[in-house]
Amino acid sequence: MPIATVNPANGETLKTYEAMDEEELERRLRLAEATFRTYRTTAFADRARLLNRAADLLDEDRAEIARVMTTEMGKPVRQARAEAAKCAKAMRWYAEHAPELLADERPAESDVKDSGASHALVRYRPLGPVLAVMPWNFPLWQVVRFAAPALMAGNVGLLKHASNVPQTALYLEDLFHRAGFSEGCFQTLLIGSGAVDEILRDERIKAATLTGSEPAGRAVASTAGEMVKKTVLELGGSDPFVVMPSADVDRAAEVAVTARVQNNGQSCIAAKRFIVHSDVYDRFTERFTEGMKALKVGDPLDEETQVGPLASEQGRADLEELVDDARRGGATVLCGGERPDGPGWYYPPTVLAGLGREMRIHREEAFGPVATLYRAADLDEAVLIANDSPFGLSSNVWTREAAEVDRFVRDLEAGGVYVNGMTASHPAFPFGGVKRSGYGRELSGHGIREFCNITTVWHGA
């Protein structure tokens, strides 16, 4: 895949970039290693000052970088501005909270004495240069949710971004440099995916984080395992959105539309499978389908657009194949389902009902504005359908019954359970999944400690 900006609204190639050669990659690896030796000893206050400055610059650049993101991957420009604002918020959150999240921990005095020590503590120390392999769908946020905690922990970062968002990738490097971080603290590597394995094998890289496809995650995890290096993986998702009879059905249907089509439906944590109790299935389906039909699809730079094009021609083709396979298997298309005429990689908001387990879309992630509807006879069947997926990123449940909430929290196989609302990431809460959605956590205290050397310090009596 070429490293290029190709506008998904019309297919026009706007900018192309040459991949960095081996000499430049070596220079950057040496710089990262050298920078870490000194950056690791900086005070939290100094790191926070730099990260807060980066947040201020990002706020100033918000309109400009939003247009870049929209032009590179097609998200509605209003959502792009919101993404930039969210990134600045996360930077400030980590700048404020990192000292307490990484403060020395003191074991219970009785345990210290029992160990034969005069005193002991647990200290969080940075690991070193971390390789971040990031996707195009949230080209700022995916990177910042790694970079902010990593930099505050004293690590340095090397970013291999998706090849279709090179301008955003270069902007991020420039942003941190303008904020005052040393050049080696955060570097963008303009390389193809084929170069990742060799870089990950380099002894100067101490850990890696990847957000992306399951095959990409398997490749990184395999190499990292061979090299005995820490990894965090956030892979695909096919999140359930369960609606029970006690729910506010109209509100659930309204939120369901946003939950499915946010970011043009290209979000790992977008709700994708809508599992509705039989008692309210017809009502929810009517409201939900009406909402999907009413969405404005069009130019993502238009302020009124709610759904823009998919990020790539191949992505649209993959989505079409899933819908066509379901249709051939007997699924009912309640709306959408047909590629529109004209330029750009658009696909309409689509609702499918009558799904069967043999259909590909039942097992695979639909990365675009396509929703699948399931009818559940009771809570037991709702849980069964929700868990009948290889993925386990997040989940949404709508009910006013406390006992049902307890059951869903206990039994849903997911990294998050959002009750009477849609899944959304926030710097204060851990983010990640189970099963084929990956392992490890980003954000919160859990995320900042993922790339730390958790060190026991023991003093004899």
UniProtKB/TrEMBL annotation:
Residues 3-457 form the Aldehyde dehydrogenase domain. InterPro entries: Ald_DH/histidinol_DH (IPR016161), Ald_DH_C (IPR016163), Ald_DH_CS_CYS (IPR016160), Ald_DH_N (IPR016162), Aldehyde_DH_dom (IPR015590), ALDH_GabD1-like (IPR044148), GABD/Sad-like (IPR047110). It holds the Pfam family Aldedh. SUPFAM superfamilies: ALDH-like. Keywords: NADP, Oxidoreductase. PROSITE patterns: ALDEHYDE_DEHYDR_CYS. Belongs to the aldehyde dehydrogenase family. This is NADP-dependent succinic semialdehyde dehydrogenase. It comes from Streptomyces galilaeus.
